[in-house]
Amino acid sequence: MLPWSTEFAGVLEEHDLTSTVLRGNPLGDPHVRPIWVYLPPGYGDDPGRRYPVVYVLQGYTGHLGMWRNRTPFRQPFPELADAMFARGEAPPGIVVYVDAWTSLGGSQFVDSPGTGNYHSYLCDEVVPWVDERYRTLADRDHRAITGKSSGGYGAMITPMRRPELFGAFATHAGDALFDAAYRPEFPMVARLLLDEYGGSVTDFLADFRSRIPMSRESDGPLLEFYGYSAAYSADPDGTVRLPFDEFGATVPAAWERWLAHDPVVMAGQPHHADALRSMRAIWIDAGNRDQYYLDLGAQAFRRVIAAAGVADERVYFELFDGTHRAIEYRYPLALAWLLRRMAGD
Amino acid sequence: MLPWSTEFAGVLEEHDLTSTVLRGNPLGDPHVRPIWVYLPPGYGDDPGRRYPVVYVLQGYTGHLGMWRNRTPFRQPFPELADAMFARGEAPPGIVVYVDAWTSLGGSQFVDSPGTGNYHSYLCDEVVPWVDERYRTLADRDHRAITGKSSGGYGAMITPMRRPELFGAFATHAGDALFDAAYRPEFPMVARLLLDEYGGSVTDFLADFRSRIPMSRESDGPLLEFYGYSAAYSADPDGTVRLPFDEFGATVPAAWERWLAHDPVVMAGQPHHADALRSMRAIWIDAGNRDQYYLDLGAQAFRRVIAAAGVADERVYFELFDGTHRAIEYRYPLALAWLLRRMAGD
Amino acid sequence: MLPWSTEFAGVLEEHDLTSTVLRGNPLGDPHVRPIWVYLPPGYGDDPGRRYPVVYVLQGYTGHLGMWRNRTPFRQPFPELADAMFARGEAPPGIVVYVDAWTSLGGSQFVDSPGTGNYHSYLCDEVVPWVDERYRTLADRDHRAITGKSSGGYGAMITPMRRPELFGAFATHAGDALFDAAYRPEFPMVARLLLDEYGGSVTDFLADFRSRIPMSRESDGPLLEFYGYSAAYSADPDGTVRLPFDEFGATVPAAWERWLAHDPVVMAGQPHHADALRSMRAIWIDAGNRDQYYLDLGAQAFRRVIAAAGVADERVYFELFDGTHRAIEYRYPLALAWLLRRMAGD
Amino acid sequence: MLPWSTEFAGVLEEHDLTSTVLRGNPLGDPHVRPIWVYLPPGYGDDPGRRYPVVYVLQGYTGHLGMWRNRTPFRQPFPELADAMFARGEAPPGIVVYVDAWTSLGGSQFVDSPGTGNYHSYLCDEVVPWVDERYRTLADRDHRAITGKSSGGYGAMITPMRRPELFGAFATHAGDALFDAAYRPEFPMVARLLLDEYGGSVTDFLADFRSRIPMSRESDGPLLEFYGYSAAYSADPDGTVRLPFDEFGATVPAAWERWLAHDPVVMAGQPHHADALRSMRAIWIDAGNRDQYYLDLGAQAFRRVIAAAGVADERVYFELFDGTHRAIEYRYPLALAWLLRRMAGD
Prior knowledge:
The structure is a homotetramer.
Chain A: E1 11-18, E2 32-39, E3 53-57, H1 77-86, E4 94-97, E5 111-112, E6 116-117, H2 118-133, E7 143-148, H3 150-161, E8 168-172, H4 178-181, H5 186-197, H6 201-210, H7 219-232, H8 252-259, H9 263-266, H10 270-277, E9 281-287, H11 294-307, E10 315-320, H12 331-342
Parallel strand pairs in A: 3-4, 3-7, 7-8, 8-9, 9-10
Antiparallel strand pairs in A: 1-2, 2-4, 5-6
């Protein structure tokens, strides 16, 4: 009963997936991962029917358990998605909730010697695992991926890298145009590190792990930028390279490795442009007051995929009134749109 | 497995309680309410043993389902409390999670013609219900109440009104010294109402209920102050009286009804002072940078209970470094202390 | 030459006025005061012509020397006023720049045992001094007063108290509706005082006077509220009573003395209502985003003078787009309007 | 009399200097410029004595007339400097107040086809003009330069470029480490431009010039970054190139021209390092909470001049408690130190 809980029209199945590629990851994080598979209303009625699948990624610091978090007056996305299906607003589809959390807050859905092989986990383990166990339409034209913030980032880059797996995607305020989204924070983060830890990220990590986490205001930014660095600019031996020096100036060698992960940069490369042109549907949105300027990132990504030759009719683009927060009501809109597009509408 | 979930050492039992006093409440909110009862490790081992009980209240906009909410790097309070018992840091006790949510966000744990009889629900229905079903030490000396913010408010006023039921309490940043905590917001709220709804709270409510709730920045403050008014200054016929006029000036008639609910004012009244002196244990804390100046409220409440004759040795007082947010790690400290005090330590 | 300076079309005469009523003031501030008298273009041409006079008051912390302050891309008000006359946008008038600064930042233009007799200085010394030395139309129908912020406050209350002297006034974001403008700051100020000076305003003052003033963020608010208290709620022996206690709660005895100075309260009293009805012209404006909610004060004052029976055609009211800052471009508009109204336009 | 004004112990002489190099400047700004020359107490007593000279530059949007601006409870720098001399805290020196204002707010003290030849004006016109008219010690070992913010920037770069003219300098929170000081603002500025002017800086300028300037919140940042671009990255024909595109991403071609002006970059170049090593005294300070991260810039500049081989004993470095605002009380400290150092102390 609302607001406390709700009954699902479909079924949300919870599993643990024992990963091979995450075993022995550099952070010592679990290689057994929760995974949720949502089956839409009617899934059990016709044993011969197969369904498209949408994979859902989370933002930085998110883990699977947080999809249940309830906020005042609103429902969590899995409930909104279920209600959307119950109302018949989209063709039925399977929704897979993927966990790519790390003890630094996230993985950015890439393979990195700093965090682990989360791209491989998603593409080479999760997708086959789902296709084996559920009646999916197991081809790229019926497989989409979506997410918000870092999850939107993952939803942009994964199909660019693996167009044979994903044929559509949606990004809500996804990390893009790193020059505008990330770099402006460097001096702020550098000053925190300098003032509070003498510039030593090692000292920060030791302190962070020794006390109530997130009890200092600097915890969030320091962890976030260390975590991004672990994903984007770790050395082969796992050494994490920050993209700024002690005074906040860009360190070009590390920054270039970040930029190589920027969806706006990636989309300008021929093989990624090929992948993007092959997409059946691309949803891009962001709040016009996004605190991280991801509205600018969304516009830049929109521009670069146009330059890459993506046909306008395959793209949905919107800057809605809002910030980076409390925009989960956008997710079902994109979910329905992706499913309609994959159904050929 | 952390961070996704954890195994409890004790048992968390979930029930629905069908209330009589909430039936037909003015907001049309459910009168069947969830209630959780946590049984500590060992509860099942000795069928003859009885346990003290601590009732736990939530802050404004909180409802029972939100106790499961997970934040990055931390555990929800029910898990922290369980772990505290598992470590043996306090004598075992039963912990009851009470729901007093309303569709305005909360009830302030009072009986009001604007919201419903939540004080009666708590005292006359929940407490007996628990005592009937569990092996409680069913007397006021073994019954405590605790909460944060509006929950801390409820934890202060309920024992003052019903000392025969509660013999100890804890308040974390509880609403107190309304003059400092609430009144400074009046002009801000009044201007929002004036600018966005022409000063009409009816128009606000109609708008709020017609769209995605909490999607406008004014939603939070407007709903909060309307909700407080519904709790503190509704007329017998249910008409809600705001304590400020269209330009933000105090409306004395309504404001006096608010003040009559202020723990600092209440504690100065003889019968409440009697009640407070009868308490075996009172825990008061707040963050020294509390956004709502509830550190000042905590200090004012500490002063007034001293003036009421409460012995210092029964009081724990602390201003800790922190704000109003992310302070759930404080709750187990007070829970353990209350249980130790009720056990005679 | 702009932007550095400008040539006046009229003449700005600078004098020192030796006050009797300020001699021996409680703060030991100078009783010899600068005063500036601006004579419009043409003043020297016709020795028989007499002119209306507008007295100009400054906001809190302002002193006469600050009228010369230049900001990027704008001119100071005395230059704007001169240019306005030069363009012939208003009938020529004499403009008198009054200084009522104190070492606490200001006087609120009242007589107080905490600061000095600034109301008497203005009304009983400055006005006659000007009328003696210049060709004024020396009657209340040709004497107006204007100001911003605390200066707007002075411009509201002085004609209410001395309608035989002033027959018109203008207030730009003048202090009004103290409940909305001042009281919300009490907890913030109280916490600063408690955290930084153990609650002792004496310690604050000693510290403030011992070092670079205004080098701590708390200096501004602490000095401001101490200064207002010195103006509004000093005892006959000069003891300054703050209107809030150490935890930020209102102290009714002192607060009532503040309220007795609130233009909105004053305007509701019969003799002040009489005075207001006698005004030939009243200009009220404020920025719609005023940080101190003086837009709400302006609206409340507008409402109360209507209730007092002031005819609508004598009032100009506007909430313009803006904040409390950088609104000096509004002053010439009111100055011109007052002069036109006094001329019978 | 304070606070209104003060008597100087020395003499402040005001002149106009008719520039040749500023004639016909691209912004159409005046080529006749005010210049103030302060002569210390005793200057008139000994007609044979010659004095060291310190040139003083202003921050962005500053012009000469603003040195008179009075703030509550403090004195303007020219008065503080005079008082410092009167107290005998430094060997007497001549202080020259230079104006390099432009109608975009400033010139950054460089020669640019976007603004004019302000470097040449300072070095080739002002300095000789002063040496001709006053009893200066007319050599680089007795000529220093100082300033705050953009003025501190000018004080860093001018001696690097013209070590034959200046042998000492002081920078208070001078613009340095552009990567940390300027670049983080690009997305914010770009979004303002996009949201309010469709990305057209021409539209912004036309609008800005058509109404009350600085009456929109975006005016400051837009004008500032346009003005910096006019100084750092204008084409030979005067076309101003912004260093960011419509979405806030860095435009490398323009940004490299900015970086070529960064004191931290410049100091790493051999001829500038030579110049720096020749300095007799270098004062660097900044507030530790500088809003523009100029504390980081100060530290980076300190590090790079050490790397350039500047001897530690010639450098004074301090991060003081403060922000970017209200730090004019620092200026006399550096002024005195420079004069003592130039006197061989």
